[in-house]
Specification:
The complex is a heterodimer of chains A (244) and B (393). Chain A is an alpha/beta fold and 244 residues long. In chain A, 32% of the residues lie in helices and 30% in strands. With 393 residues, chain B is of the alpha/beta class. Chain B is built from 6 helices and 20 strands. Classes of the chains: A alpha/beta (244), B alpha/beta (393). At the A-B interface, helix 2, strand 7 and helix 3 of A face helix 4 and helix 5 of B.
Chain lengths: 244, 393
């Protein structure tokens, strides 16, 4: 069953075309890796899927479990089970990490005591009563983002560069948390990665490659990822993989 | 010259700051509105005072000019109407706030009715708060309060001030606070007035050696005008104060609100914090000043403001004035707006626009509540949550 579909998507941000063509489809059990060079539109695509107000879908549809969510605001998508861990969260002065996590847990009817367990799993207990993002290291910020996914327990999770600017220990903690999500509440993950580091610790089922605003390759072969990482994106342009 | 004489001479003396109000216009105005008790209890509850089943060490409730509840539940706290002070207690009256300070103080000296005299006995640590409430049906409410916390004593006073909606009112209060050696007072004041009320609190506190004064002031609704500049005099060596003001300006409010700390003793400490939220067409001046003359004294002020509407205006005035070559004074000041990316981020985390803005405003007004006991802290957090929700444009 298809749980998340981006059908021939085009996305604009502040009137500028960012994604010109994106087609992807996640089924139950999928862990999809989305790679692409800097500025290829990966993060914009994820934001558009999540309903970020600044990323407008100007063509195509987004379907969640068959339901057209293209026009829904982000919080409605969230409530329908779509979660996102963003690449660069803003710092929120005065807003405690605990406050956000507790609100998310409460929203799905959970007990706020879960927050402590989630924080422990991601080694961020010491951050709970600090202002969100203020003075967090890169790895702490990423782990806090993943903690929000654990708090939400989304049916489908979008994870934007969980492995950028973090040490290997953080990547392993994050991979373990994503694994936990897949074993419990989540049907599919779409992970954007630049370095591919996260892919060493998580079992991907398919790979998408995005270049110049277009999804140019979809492959069930995990080797595509290692080929791209060793030969560069030029390999795709030269017909490597099975490009669209 | 006696108090009344001095006051008469100041009856047309304007305050140095804030809009000038014709005080006499409000005095003697008959209040026709009768307020059901249930409404009063509800309104008092919104400003942190429980009249029906108070968890308090003492309770004072004044409705317009009448004192309706006056009781103490511990021998550590004496509370009485200001008009009933003993002869030897008269020395505390008008010493810190002279009757000829300005027309608002003068009006209290000449026409005031009500207010309390509270004494917390030497060495007593009173854990439950002393709750006081000033409720107005309309017209003028002019009150004089004195608080004496004797050597080594500790207490919390929670004061709620409110008025019936749409009733025209003028509230002026004089509050004189004396802290003995090693004593501690936590002073929480929550105002919720209406769009046609003018408010002029006049407060001064003196701290003896080793005393601690902690003040929280919250104005959580539109008020036509407020002008106040409480003065905290840290006379005793090692005395310290923390003062936080959280102010919501809405509609056509005009506020001039601040604090002044005088570091007179050696090794005194003061931290003054002001958080202002301005929406609609409100005008807010926030002034924080620390004057230091005591050796090795330290002071810090933080003036922060959020402007939420294009027609709102905020002016922050942090001032440091030192006559001591080994004192350290610092200030921070900022005026800004909520950034779109913060709202958008929280919307991605499942919060709708109003919820996201409310969370961010609640974060903005975060101040150090660690001085408060758990029950008062919870009440304060509820008040700040309501303030955040009322701030949303």
């Amino acid at each position: 069953m298809e749980v998340l579909v981006a059908r021939d998507l085009a996305v604009e941000c502040n009137g500028k075309s960012i994604v010109t063509y994106a087609r992807l489809s996640l089924s139950k059990g999928d862990i999809a890796i989305l790679i692409g060079p800097n500025g290829s539109g990966k993060s914009s695509l994820l934001n558009a899927l999540a309903g970020h107000p600044r990323y407008k879908v100007v063509r195509g549809r987004v379907l969640l479990y068959g339901r057209d969510i293209t026009g829904l605001p982000p919080y409605e998508r969230f409530r329908l089970g779509l979660g996102i861990a963003v690449q660069n969260p803003p710092r929120l002065k005065g807003v405690k990490l605990r406050t956000i996590l507790e609100a998310i847990v409460r929203r799905r009817g959970g007990e706020v005591s879960e927050v402590q367990r989630i924080a422990k799993a991601l080694s961020i207990e010491h951050l709970l009563d600090r202002d969100f993002g203020v003075g967090f290291s890169g790895g702490e910020m990423k782990r806090a983002e993943i903690a929000m996914l654990l708090a939400q327990r989304p049916r489908v999770a979008l994870v934007d560069e969980p492995d950028s600017g973090v040490d290997v220990d953080s990547v392993m903690i994050i991979a373990s948390a994503l694994d936990e999500l897949m074993k419990s509440a989540t049907d599919a993950l779409l992970i954007v990665t630049h370095s591919g580091m996260i892919a060493k610790h998580i079992r991907a089922t398919k790979v998408y490659v995005m270049m110049n605003g277009r999804v140019v390759l979809e492959s069930p072969k995990f080797e595509v990822l290692s080929e791209v990482l060793s030969k560069g994106f030029k390999w795709i342009m030269e017909g490597g993989g099975s490009g669209r | 010259m006696d108090v009344k004489e001095r006051a008469k001479r100041a009856l047309s003396k304007p305050a140095p700051f804030g809009p000038d109000i014709d005080v006499l216009h409000y005095i003697g105005e008959e209040v026709r509105q009768e307020t059901p008790s249930s409404s009063v209890e509800e309104l008092a509850s919104r400003v942190g005072v429980e009249l029906r089943s108070p968890k308090a060490s003492a309770l004072y409730y004044q409705r317009d000019e009448r004192i309706e509840i006056l009781k103490t539940l511990t021998s550590c706290v004496d509370i009485k109407p200001i008009e009933s002070v003993d002869k030897d207690e008269l020395e505390y009256l008008w010493r810190l706030v002279p009757p000829d300070t300005d027309k608002y103080v003068a009006s209290v000296a000449l026409y005031g009715k009500g207010g309390y005299f509270i004494r917390v006995r030497k060495g007593c640590r009173v854990e439950l708060p002393i709750q006081t409430c000033f409720f107005m049906s309309g017209g003028a409410q002019l009150v004089h309060n004195v608080v004496v916390v004797e050597d080594g004593a500790e207490a919390i006073i929670v004061t709620g001030c409110t008025i019936m909606p749409e009733s025209i009112g003028f509230h002026s209060s004089v509050t004189e606070i004396y802290l003995g050696r090693g004593s501690k007072l936590i002073d929480v004041t929550i105002h919720s007035w209406n769009r046609v009320t003018h408010v002029r609190p006049r407060t001064a506190a003196v701290l003896s050696e080793g005393a601690t004064y902690v003040s929280y002031y919250v104005n959580m609704s539109r008020t036509r005008t407020i002008q106040t500049l409480p003065r905290i005099e840290l006379r005793g060596d090692g005395s310290q104060c923390y003062s936080a003001s959280i102010i919501l300006g809405a509609e056509d409010s005009e506020y001039d609100i601040g604090s002044l700390a005088r570091l007179l003793g050696r090794e005194t400490r003061a931290e003054l914090v002001s958080k202002v939220i301005a929406r609609d067409r409100s005008r807010v001046v926030s002034r924080l000043k620390i004057e230091a003359s005591g050796s090795r004294s330290k002071g810090f002020t933080e003036c922060s403001a959020l402007i939420l509407s294009p027609s709102a205006r905020v002016e922050t005035i942090p001032e440091l004035d030192s006559a001591s070559d080994d004192s350290e004074l610092h200030h921070e000041a900022s005026i800004g707006r909520i950034r779109d990316e913060e709202i958008e981020y929280l919307m991605l985390k499942g919060f709708d626009y109003r919820e996201a803005v409310s969370i961010l405003i609640r974060g903005f007004v975060e101040v150090n509540l660690d001085f408060l006991p758990e029950s008062v802290r919870k009440s304060m957090e509820s008040v700040l949550k309501v303030l955040a929700e009322r701030s949303i444009v």
